[in-house]
Amino acid sequence: MLVADAQNRFWQKLSNSFLDEIGGLSQFTGRFFKQGFRPRYELAEFVRQCFVIGYKSFPLIGLTSFILGLVLTMQLRPSMVSYGVESQLPAIVGIAVIREIGPVITALIFAGKIGSSIGAELGSMRVTEQIDAMEVSGTNPFKYLVVTRVLAATLMLPVLVLLGDAISLMGSWIGINIRGVTSFHLYWRQVFNNLGFTDVLPAFFKSYFFGFAVGIIGCFKGYNSSKGTEGVGISANSAVVVSSIMIFILDLLAVQITDALGLN
Amino acid sequence: MESLKTSEVLIDKAEVDEPILRIENLYKSFGNNHVLVDFNLEIKRGESVVVLGKSGSGKSVMIKCVVGLLQPDRGTIMMFGKNIPELNDEELDHIRAKVGFLFQGNALYDSMTVRGNLEFPMRRTWIRFSHEEVNRRVIETLEDVGLSHTIDMMPAELSGGMRKRIALARTLILRPEIILYDEPTTGLDPITGKEIIDLMNEISDKYNTSSLIISHDMKCVQTASDRVVILIDGKNYVMGNYEELSKNEDPKVKEFFE
After folding, report:
1. What is the pTM of this model?
2. What is this model's ipTM?
3. B101 in reach of chain A (CB within 8 A)
């Protein structure tokens, strides 16, 4: 009986905190849309955030994308050879990278780097009263800190995905040439001959949603941080975990939508 | 009409006689925790009032309600003729340009230099300042707190006392008419604490600012107050100057002065 009560309490607490979290995040997102497109616009801070979030993430995303393309090609090659379709390797890698692996892996790395940094930065500003100090200085901290970061993350991730895809395919070309010889021109012709707008556009559009999810969740976790320095760690950590899960959920929704629209 | 110049604005005699801050029947609770229960306070122009109370007695909650960071459950906070809880964001920003707030933990922006920290309120407020004016005032205010040489340093490079002085400089940069101090000497050694109190008094004299100081540091209470309010159980339990209260025989009051 006691065990059953304890179990009930546990599940009730868990579901309450889950619902609180969903409610809080929905309210936070609503506030973003309410305040984000009204003056005063924080252009200078937005441009600075684009630099920090976009440009400074590029080396990490470039490196991981290159390795991803190279490794994927080298892993696929033996199977392709055994089926006698080795010549289709650029097309297969191209479709896999552009449609799915590129956006999802880039978004996950982005969540790890940017989600955690936003969560920790805003969390630390919250617990050291810097956000309150901003408010007292006549600044709307939500607009200055949250709106700029969410918009920058939303706009920068698709750019990083495009660059990451291109670098992945370069890595794949190098991977093909480790064991064989395929000219640069022939490789790209084979990639592009097998790609259509229905491969590129849905993948590109879903990365805007991934970027928005990383930005809004990182800001939500950091902005509502509590419990001192311990809370900052929790904010950074949960920003990564929740935004990673959200990326997979959005990916699942995106594939359902493109399927329903006949784009697959 | 007789007038005098304070904080770079002309104030007529009638305004001088008006209290700069009047709190009436302020009530604030968090769940079942009733932090402030009918709290009342009045501060005249140029006056320095210390609110004394134990940790957790609601001092910081009260000061945050005054500056609009927390919304009270009921009561009025009249500052510059406006009731703070009823103001919208824009009106609040206009009032805040005339109010300085020194945070307990300084709240300096880690990612900005000392110059950036001081320029921030000037660039963000609704009042427009020229580039030359911003530069001139940053240098002048740093001279006021004796830290001109730190202008290009980051907050992390400064000692605790220096950070407090820079936070005070940032509070002062818009030349406020009233400064709210949240535990200004907490975490400082007695010598640095005394330096900060002396600096607060110098600033108050130089710019004719009123002060609302939250503290439980008796040295601060003794040297920085014109009047002391003791906050117990969310109410202003007793009020008077330091000498009067130090002779008060009430055990709850005596506790603070022992």
Report:
1. 0.85
2. 0.84
3. yes
